[in-house]
């Protein structure tokens, strides 16, 4: 990786159903302290040589003890959602294939919410930036 390149992280917008989604999964972080209490689309860092979709499957299995199928990506004009000078994020719609979404150590609460209710949660800033695009995509998906 180039020394000035941003590290890629991935997030899963887990839906109750990839064909006709009506609810979105949200998880409230417990750490680090600066982010505790904020809601996120779960995910994590992409390792060197790892495909973003594979990283997402791995991270959800590690964090939430479930296997997901990865669907379409939420597009961003620059290809990835900027988080900071060090990180950028790609977001993918997903659905649970096997297992149940468990809170694990990274989260103290989880919820299934309707797309129109997404704005009612206090999201991580990087995830909040994508809420409008996600909601618009889901509302058009449902049409």
Automatic annotation (TrEMBL):
Q: Which domain of life is it from?
A: Bacteria
Q: Which reaction does it catalyse?
A: 8-oxo-dGTP + H2O = 8-oxo-dGMP + diphosphate + H(+)
Q: Which InterPro entries does this chain map to?
A: MutT-like, Nudix_hydrolase, NUDIX_hydrolase-like_dom_sf, NUDIX_hydrolase_dom
**GO biological process annotation, one example:** DNA repair
- Gene Ontology terms, MF aspect: 8-oxo-7,8-dihydrodeoxyguanosine triphosphate pyrophosphatase activity; 8-oxo-7,8-dihydroguanosine triphosphate pyrophosphatase activity; 8-oxo-dGDP phosphatase activity; 8-oxo-GDP phosphatase activity; metal ion binding
The EC number on file is 3.6.1.55
Q: Does the keyword Ion transport apply?
A: no
Which cofactor is recorded for it? Mg(2+)
Q: Which residues form the Nudix hydrolase domain?
A: 5-135
Cite the entry's keywords alphabetically.
Answer: DNA damage, DNA repair, DNA replication, Hydrolase, Magnesium, Metal-binding, Mutator protein
Query: Which family, according to UniProt?
Result: Belongs to the Nudix hydrolase family.
The record's PANTHER family line, in alphabetical order, gives: 8-OXO-DGTP DIPHOSPHATASE, NUDIX HYDROLASE FAMILY PROTEIN
Q: What is this protein called?
A: 8-oxo-dGTP diphosphatase
């Amino acid at each position: 990786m180039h020394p000035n390149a941003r590290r890629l992280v991935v997030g899963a917008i887990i839906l109750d159903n990839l064909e006709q989604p009506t609810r979105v999964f949200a998880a409230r972080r417990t750490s680090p302290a600066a982010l505790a209490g904020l809601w996120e689309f779960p995910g994590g860092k992409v390792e060197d040589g790892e495909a973003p979709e594979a990283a997402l499957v791995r991270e959800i299995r590690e964090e939430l003890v479930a296997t997901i199928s990865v669907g379409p990506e939420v597009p961003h004009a620059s290809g990835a959602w900027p988080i900071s000078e060090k990180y950028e994020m790609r977001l993918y719609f997903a659905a649970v294939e096997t297992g149940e979404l468990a809170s694990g150590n990274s989260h103290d609460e989880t919820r299934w919410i309707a797309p129109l209710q997404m704005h009612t949660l206090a999201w991580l800033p990087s995830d909040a930036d994508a809420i409008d695009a996600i909601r618009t995509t889901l509302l058009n998906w449902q049409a």
